[in-house]
Design goal:
Layout lengths: L6 H10 L3 H7 L3 H11 L12 E2 L4 H11 L3 E2 L13 E3 L7 H9 L5 E4 L6 H7 L9 E4 L6 H10 L4 E9 L2 H16 L3 E8 L4 E8 L4 E7 L6 E7 L5 E5 L2 H18 L6 H19 L15
Parallel strand pairs: 1-2, 3-4, 4-5, 6-9
Antiparallel strand pairs: 6-10, 7-8, 8-9, 10-11
Amino acid sequence: MNEGNGHPFSYSAIFNGYDPEELKRRCPFKLIQEYLPREHNNKVFIESAKVTHIWTQDKQLSEDVARVSLIPNIVDQMEEMIDEVDAVILARDDPWNHLKMAMPFLKKRIPIFIDKQLVANSQDLEELLKYTSDDYPIMAGSSMRFTRDVLIAKEKCSNLMIKSIHGMSRVSWLRYGHHLLEGIVPIFGYDIDWVRSLRTKPYHDIVQIQFSTGLNVILEFIEDIHLPIQFTCYSEKYAPYPVLFQDFFYSFREMMIRFVQLAKSGEKAFPFDEMIGIAKIVLAGDISKKADGKKINPVTLACIE
């Protein structure tokens, strides 16, 4: 677990179900306390897999998640899972820790899901790519890709000649950029000329993305802004079209179902190159932020000015 991220509770509950009383006592996330009884209600959503082991950096945290989400085994070290599990969910979204935590499993070629951004810098990405490729069962990203609103928008917006997109999210570009990008990229692709940061104020990121088609995208991230995460598409002839990320449980469930498919059969929910491409868009924005807003090529991660 990492601060502000309740996915260990929610992802595990999708597989295992949950204890309603322990949810009230032990889960500190109000949103999860609301949507699990409303949308899960202990139905069986994934019959072919269970979460059997958990590790967090704190034994009490592990106990809380395990009791809420019915996980039978708590381990003291991550590596204890290697010979016990068929796949791993790395449910933290602090990408500066991802490579270190994923590496024991990558070396053993264990299927792995990594929450949102793969890694926090180009050096870590280069190292990760030494162990992964198109034939490795790895999945990383945001569940926004699997929301019903994005699926509807993919049909509607592809024919609207969209000229500009403005998006808004909470937290930060590095941690939450995927939530907006994985709504936008499935619709508009990721053929991008450059990415640049427009603001370096703490707790407030603004990133501009210029597509090769001329599509202009402005994405804004404020640490404590209220949900929902959303982006709005603007065209010449039609009213602005908003796409909201509020379909939490449905999208989490669909994402975990696709990860199980990957672990069992190797079937990918989206191409490996697209996963890496989105990760590099996020890295390009972060590099630009540290380089006073210079335009960064998201393929080479080099300055183009």
